[in-house]
From TrEMBL:
Record keyword rRNA-binding present: no
Gene3D superfamilies referenced in this protein's UniProt entry, alphabetically: CBS-domain
Protein name from the UniProt record: CBS domain-containing protein
Organism per entry: Neolewinella aurantiaca
Keyword terms, alphabetized: CBS domain
Organismal lineage: Bacteria, Pseudomonadati, Bacteroidota, Saprospiria, Saprospirales
InterPro entries, sorted: CBS_dom, CBS_dom_sf, Diverse_CBS-Domain
Span of domain CBS: 1-57, 64-120
Amino acid sequence: MTTDVVTVSEHTPVAVALGLFKKHNIHHLPVLSPEKALIGIVSPADFLKLPDNGAGMHLVKEIMTSHVAKLEPTDTVRTAANLFCMNKFHALPVIEDGKLAGILTTLDLVRLIDQEEIRLEDYA
């Protein structure tokens, strides 16, 4: 999981969020309340909800997904994988004590699998 997460508030202009995607080369932006509680998430597909592709004076709250599936730090990799598969998600925020602790993406799982030792007998 990534713990140094770039976030926005619901009052962040959509144009600023677009800039953060490009600047940090990311695909998901958790949306936090002033108390730092998770209230939503924004992905590139959410920008398609806007008739002008975000060029206007829109705020993140207009496009964010507010019902977000989440993980706890004690959840297993299998739990995360099941959530990814069942829901076709690509990112899951990790919440600890009501606050954002990190974000787990499908790329994180691929990297984990890639670290497994390769045995020649697996290719027989």
